[in-house]
Amino acid sequence: MASVETAAEHERILREIESTDTNCIGPTLRSVYDGQEHGLFMEKLDARIRNHDREIEKMCNHHFQGFVDSITELLKVRGEAQKLKSQVIETNRRLQEDGKQLTCSMEELTQCRVQQRNIATTVDKLTHCLPVLEMYSRLQEQMSAKRYYPALRTLEQLESTCLPRAGQYRFCSIMAENIPKLRTQIRDTAMTQLRDFLESIRKHSDKIGETAIKQAQVQRSLDSSVTVQPRALISRRGRRAAVAAGTASNRHNGNPLSEQDSGILDVEEEEDDVPGAQDLVDFSPVYRCLHIYTVLGLRDEFENYYRKQRRKQARLVLQPHSNMHETLEGYRRYFNQIVGFFVVEDHVLHTTQGLVNRAYVEELWELALSKIVAALRTHSSYCDDPDLVLDLKNLIVLFADTLQGYGFPVSQLFDMLLEMREQYGEILLKKWNITFRHILDQDNYSPIPVSTELEYRNYASQFPLQDPELEKLPFPKKLPFSEFVPKVYSQLKEFIYACLKYSEDLHLSSTEVDDMIRKSTNLLLTRTLSHCLQYAIKKKNVGLAELVQVIINTTHLEQCCHFLEEFISNITNVPPDTANATKLYGTSTFKDARHAAEAEIYTSLNTKIDQFLQLADYDWMSAAQDSKNLMTSDFLLDLIAFLRSTFSVFTNLPGKVAQTACMSACKHISTSLMQLLLDPEVRQISIGALHQLQVDVNECESFARAGPVAGFQGDTLLLAFSDLRQLLDLFTQWDWSTYLADYGKPSCRYLRVNPHTALALLEKMKETSRKNNVFAQFKKADRDRQKLIDTIIKQLRNLIAQHHV
């Protein structure tokens, strides 16, 4: 059984060897050698080989004749093939010889075609590269020429258009690498130029402002009657608007603008105009930097930087110097810098699109306006020179008009000028106070002598003389007033002119100017001049003659007040009878001064009388004598002589003043003599002393009857001595029964004798009587007199008590 299987296996292996590719026979043979029957397999393999050999031999025998025939045919074909080969070689040789020239031509054609293709490729590449190189060359030229905005636009075109078309070349890579560096360089250079520009306009602000202010001043002087915006300012505004529109159009169209392309300088050069800000400062760095930053996409950053720097410069410009108030030039430099700053901002506003806007400029102006007003209020408060204040006011008006021409609101400045008007008025009052005092100190308080008609007309031109009788008098003659009157009147007019000068150009109506001048003049009259007159009246060593002249002067000044009213109306063109018009208080001022002088005359006269009365030396214990043997006291004679000479000077005074002074003097003499009688230090008075006093009173009454001052009716002046006269008559005549019986009746002879006064004097006489009669008390007459005095004293006390109840 095993041999059968082995044989079957060997058969399978043989079939597999016959049918399998020789490359895969290894595993089959390995399976034979792995077994134990390889010898048997070899035998079967040999048998199979012999079998195949027999089959091959049978097949060869069967096909041998055909093979021989084929060999024979093949030999025949070889000969023909040799011939054919020779012919082919010959044909090939001839072909090669004939095609050699064609091959050369073809090679040349091929080479030409390659060259043509290379040339076309090169031309194409150069077509793309040459614009890059040309543009880069132009970029370098623009950078060298510092035309950075066109360079930046060239750089942008090079990067976005030309380099992508050129392809990947090394020089393109180098260019591409340099583009960010060039952008940074352009940006940094533009910023450096901007900083230089900012520094330049900071330095040139003074000059720009000075030029703008001069331009406004010239324009105002050319057309002061019409309130319009200056032509030059309008033309500049129109030109700026046109330039701004052109700038916007060019930017919209993508045309790069350089400093030459902006048109700012060219437009200005075409006008025969006063140089403007653009003529003094080159604004091209601003436009260039704005365009560059706009192209770089950094416009907001640039705007913020520019505005921040300008705000810093504004703070510096608005900070005044500490000594600005000392000279007008300090204020002028301050205003010039501010005007220059805002003229530049206004120019930038109208020549750029949004670098600064109206809101920003207005905000900056509001800040500036508040600081300007504060600085002017502070520094002007230090000023005490009216001329400097007036020049400062004119400078502020010119400053305000200049900025108003550029569209800035300046109402606060004019409001501040109205506030400064009060300060100016105070300074004027101080100055005129010194002037008036100087006039008063230098015045001789004497009527002005006039020798010729020319002198008279000269004084008439200074002061309105309204005295027809004086004009009729021949020369030489005297004006009733002293030099003080025309000088004060002229100074009043000068003050009014000074007030009018300040009111000019403040855009006030005639009524407002008139009211302002009148109020200031009233202050001058009621405060300054009034105080000066009081000073002249109250100062020491002022004589009665000087006081009399002061009264005469103030009377004439009072009479000329309506001329001042007319003078103010003429210079302000406002009728004096206008409703709500302020009236001058000159009349009341001079009346008050005259009343003060009159009171001072009365006081001075009484003081002089007191000095004479201090010389009185009455012997209050003198013995009784006959009145005919008594003489008037020396002091009283001197006093009356003084009064006569004094009242002779009063002839030029108003009648009531002289009468009042005379009456006051007489009353003061009477009162003073009464006080001598009632002096508490005088404890005893004899009847002889009363007789002496009665003689002195008689002399005073004789003086009063003589009429030292005209105008008294009858014995009116004697009434000043009636109290003293009745008292002395009562005691010297010892008429007590009449006094006590008629007391309180209108017809009483001793109506002016006060019971208190009589009681006090009677008690002094009682003491005298008691002392004199110490050793004569046993005499009946003396005892009776003493009892009578006691009885009268008792009755007087009862009378006083009754009237008190």
Automatic annotation (TrEMBL):
Entry's Gene Ontology cellular component terms: exocyst; plasma membrane
Annotated ranges, domain Exocyst complex component EXOC6/Sec15 N-terminal: 44-213
Protein purpose: Component of the exocyst complex involved in the docking of exocytic vesicles with fusion sites on the plasma membrane.
PANTHER family, alphabetized: EXOCYST COMPLEX COMPONENT 6B, SEC15
GO annotation, biological process: Golgi to plasma membrane transport; intracellular protein transport; vesicle tethering involved in exocytosis
InterPro entries attached to this UniProt entry: EXOC6/Sec15, EXOC6/Sec15_C, EXOC6/Sec15_C_dom1, EXOC6_Sec15_N, EXOC6PINT-1/Sec15/Tip20_C_dom2
Any Pfam family the entry gives: EXOC6_Sec15_N
Residue ranges of domain Exocyst complex subunit EXOC6/Sec15 C-terminal in the record: 412-764
Family per record: Belongs to the SEC15 family.
Keywords: Exocytosis, Transport
Protein name, as recorded: Exocyst complex component
